[in-house]
Amino acid sequence: MSQKAQIGVTGLAVMGRNLARNFARHGHTVAVHNRSYGRTKELVEEFGHEGTFLPAETAEQFVASLERPRRVVIMVKAGPATDAVIDEFAPLLEEGDMLIDAGNAHYADTRRREAALKAKGLHFVGAGVSGGEEGALHGPSIMPGGPKESYEALGPLLEDIAAKVDGEPCCVHVGPDGAGHFVKMVHNGIEYADMQLIAEAYDLLRQVGGLSPQQIADVFAEWNSGRLGSYLIEITAEVLKQVDAGTGKPFVDVVLDQAEQKGTGRWTVQAALDLGVPVSGIAESVFARALSGGADVRKAAADAGLPGPSAGAEHVGGDLRADVEQALFASKIVAYAQGFQQIQAASKEYGWEIDPGAMAKIWRAGCIIRAKFLDFIKQAYDKQPDLSTLLVDDYFLNAVSGAQDAWRRVVVTAAQQGIPAPGFASALAYYDGLRAERLPAALIQGQRDFFGAHTYHRVDREGSFHTLWATEDRAEVSA
Ligand code: 6PG
C-alpha cells in the first residue's frame, strides 16, 4: 500500500467518526476502522469529500495503512471494550508505536494499561477529549497524558484539531500515564457541580421569584454576557426557552426530574476521598443526582407528606435575581477552587507535575465547562503556580467578598422556603470552614480520644497526647 495515514481511528460511533473527520478536514490522511465494516464504508461514502480516509476492513489492514510511528486512536466505550481493542491491536504494533485512548477511561485503568504496554515497547496515551460530538468535529479541548516523548509525535496532530483561543490550541501534554484522564475526570466533576449550581439558581428564580422558564431563560441569557458567561449558562438559556411541541408546555416541565450520570462525577469524588481533598461542591452535585433518581424513597416521602416550612417568607434584604447571580458566581468559584485543588493533590501524589494554569488555559474553549472565568483562573496560577486555593487569589477573594452578603441571603431564603440548594449551601459552608479561625474539629478530636484513645495534638506544644478519661483525675499523658 503506497499511501500511508498519519493517524488512525478505530471505533466510528459519532465521537470517533467526528474525530476522524476533524483530522481529515485538517489535511491529514486518516485510517479508519470499525468492528462492523459497514460503518466504516458509511463514513467514507458520506464524508469522503472532506479529506483523505483509508478505510480498513481488518485490524491488520488498518495497521498496515499507518506510517511509523503508528498512532492508533481508540474511541470505544470505557472499560472492558477498551481492553479488548488494546488486546486486538497491540500485537500488530511495533516498538515506538502508540495507542491513544480518547474515551472517558478511569485514570487508574489508564495507568495500568500504560505500564503494561510500556513493557512491550509501546506508548499508551490516555487523552481526555471534551466537547461532545460537536466538539470532536469542530474543535474539542484535549487533555493527553502518557509519555512526554509520545507527545512529540502526537501533539501536533491533536493541536491541529483542538479548539483554539487567540490561535492557541486547547491541547497540551498534561503529564505522564493517567494524568490526562485524571484531569478530564475532574473536568467532568466540575461540570457536574456547575450544572447543579445552575439548576439551583433556576429553581430559586422559579419557586421563590415566581419567574416562568422563558423569563428565567432571559435572565440566563443576560448573565451569559457578564462574568458568568459560559457554555453551560448559554445552553441553559436555550433549554429553558424550549417549548415541548407535543404539549405546548415548557420543555423543562415535561422532562422527568431524575438526573442520570455515566460515572465520571462519581469517580471524581471517590478519588478526592482517597486524596483527602474536600470537593464538597462536586460531591453534593453527585448526591443531588442520586437523590433525584431515588424514585421510591421520594415517593415514600411524598406519601408520608414530609412537612415543609410554614408559608414561605419573602426574600429579604436584596433583589432575588441579583442575589442569585452573586450566589451562583461565588459558589462556582468554590467548586472550581476545589477541583483545581484536587488536580494539584493528585499531581503531587502521582508525581505528574501538572501545570494548573495550563489546564485552565486549555479549558477556555472546546470543553463543556468553557467559560470566560477560566482566563482569571489561568492568570491566578500564572501569578502563583503553587497557589493553595483559588479563593486566596486577589480576583476571586474580592469577587467572593463582594458576593457573600447576597450569597448568605440566598442560602437563608432557600432554607426558610424549603428549596433544596445543597450546592449553594455547601459552598458557603466550605468557605466559612476555610476562613474559620477555630473549627469544632477540636471537639471531635476530644470525642475520638475519649472513646477510642486516638490521641490529639495541642495548640500550645508539639507532640501527641491522650487523656486518661476513665481515671478520677483524667490526667493527660504523652502518647
Ligand atoms: C464532555 C462531557 C462528556 C459526557 C459527560 C456526560 O466533556 O464532553 O463531559 O464526557 O457528555 O461525561 O456525563 P454524565 O452522563 O455523567 O452526565
Automatic annotation (TrEMBL):
Database matches in Gene3D superfamilies: 6-Phosphogluconate Dehydrogenase, domain 3, N-(1-d-carboxylethyl)-l-norvaline Dehydrogenase, domain 2, NAD(P)-binding Rossmann-like Domain
Molecular-function GO term, any one: NADP binding
Enzyme class, spelled out: oxidoreductase
Segments passing through the bilayer: none
Keyword tags: Gluconate utilization, NADP, Oxidoreductase, Pentose shunt
Binding site for substrate: 104, 130-132, 187-188, 192, 262, 289, 448, 454
GO biological process, any: D-gluconate metabolic process
Reaction equation(s) it catalyzes: 6-phospho-D-gluconate + NADP(+) = D-ribulose 5-phosphate + CO2 + NADPH
Keyword set includes ATP-binding: no
Active-site residues annotated for this sequence: 184 (proton acceptor), 191 (proton donor)
Homology family: Belongs to the 6-phosphogluconate dehydrogenase family.
Role according to the record: Catalyzes the oxidative decarboxylation of 6-phosphogluconate to ribulose 5-phosphate and CO(2), with concomitant reduction of NADP to NADPH.
Name of the protein this chain belongs to: 6-phosphogluconate dehydrogenase, decarboxylating
